[in-house]
Amino acid sequence: MKTPRVVPATDTPPEDETASASAPPRPRGLRHNTRWLMAFLCFLGMTVNYVDRATISISLPYMTDDLHIGPEWQGVILSMFFVTYALGQLPAGAMIDRYGEKKMFAIGGLIWSLVTVATGFVRGIGSLLIARLALGAGEAPAYPSCAKSVSRWFPVRERALANSVWDNGARAGTAVAAPVVTALIAWQGWRMAFWVTGGVALLWVALWLKAYREPSAAGGISAEERAYVTAGGARLEETPAEDSGKAAPEGPAVRWRDLFRYRTVWGMMIGFFCLNYVIYFFITWFPSYLVDARGFDLLKLGFYGALPGLVAIGGSLLGGWTSDTLLRRGWSVTRARKTCLVCGMLFSSVIAFAVLVPSAMWALTLLSVSYASLAFSAASVASLPADVAPTPRHVASLGGIQNFASNLAGVLGSTTTGLLLGFFNHSFVAPLMLSGALCVVGALTYGLVIKRVEPLRIAAA
């Protein structure tokens, strides 16, 4: 894709300068490391987000009789979430850049918590469909808010690890949801499960508003920590809401729609689409694969089925640590990020070989390696919006655009797998071969389509 004549973006140091070792030493003490508390708050938010998202999947078998939901409606009910969630990424990212991550994450949390509570009162398919659509819209600000927070609080050399911290909230929430929601259903029924998980989300909103600080706010960050993160390339701008009527910063403007003119942005979208296509296999069809293709009973499914997700948590943290370590050792941002992205995506293609090995344990091992490799890459994927945004006020917008493409994979992936299973007589060979091929396509995209990981050049007037 040809890019128009451009001028360099000036809000962020060049990548060689950003990645240099000339920054002030890392500050010591809790008071000077507030940024890690902010990353933990984002982790808690994503964990609660995924618990509330998973409640419907676990509760649906128990809701069918009460609400007279036939099998033809169950897939529709589950997919409605992704419609508004994917579409909501685009306006959510732009609004976060305009109003700030603290306000927008809180508003999103308030919406999805109230919708979760309201789901416990539904009386039919119609009201349940409306609740699913509203839940997707409410959860849309979560991902770009976390990406925005890390971009503002962390220097480049710590950004990937910080992103892996909050990104693991997705895996932690999925793991926590199964035993907690099941216990609530066994205790008081499926309606109680929605009331309790929605109530927990309300508590998180209160905690977020109380504990989260804007790095540009007075007292939000110590002078030592500010010097460290600023010298390291943190995108520490003020949002318009914080400006309180002050003039906007000077410099060429980039309209939201102009972001789609950049080759790098399309590379981010296609690469994340490929990555998430495979991840959604683990979220949607993986249990069916273990039962139908490998003959796992309920006990084995409950024990072994959790292993890939647990291994993926380690893969995510390793990916963040590796990318940041390479930067600290003098690698450029381009080389460090693309190495982790390409290697992780290539290793994840071993998912295609899971259908070829005769042993169920070998298949499970290959699937665990694939999921961990995807998570390894995901830490650098989450860092890309902050790495390439032309100005700090485009970080969340790019995060929303990237996540919009990735969640289209959630809709298409689950549907395509079902169609292939029907066409090939319930064989998982074709679905897993396709997943492995998309891993290779993702690796090629990150390696060849994205040329340099640096702030996008702003078109000259």
From TrEMBL:
Keyword Nucleotide-binding on entry: no
Gene3D superfamilies associated with the record: MFS general substrate transporter like domains
UniProt keyword annotations, A-Z: Membrane, Transmembrane, Transmembrane helix
Pfam family of the protein (one): MFS_1
Predominant place of localization: membrane
One example GO MF annotation: transmembrane transporter activity
PROSITE patterns according to UniProt: MFS (PS50850)
SUPFAM superfamilies (UniProt xref): MFS general substrate transporter
Residue ranges of the TM segments: 36-53, 73-92, 104-125, 192-209, 265-283, 303-327, 339-357, 430-449
This protein's GO CC annotations: plasma membrane
Superkingdom to which the source organism belongs: Bacteria
Domain named Major facilitator superfamily (MFS) profile: residues: 38-454
InterPro entries, A to Z: MFS, MFS_dom, MFS_Na/Anion_cotransporter, MFS_trans_sf
Region annotation Disordered: where it falls in the sequence: 1-27
Location(s) in or outside the cell: Cell membrane
Membrane topology type: Multi-pass membrane protein
Keyword DNA-binding: no
Protein name, entry field: Phthalate permease family MFS transporter
Organism encoding this protein: Streptomyces himastatinicus ATCC 53653
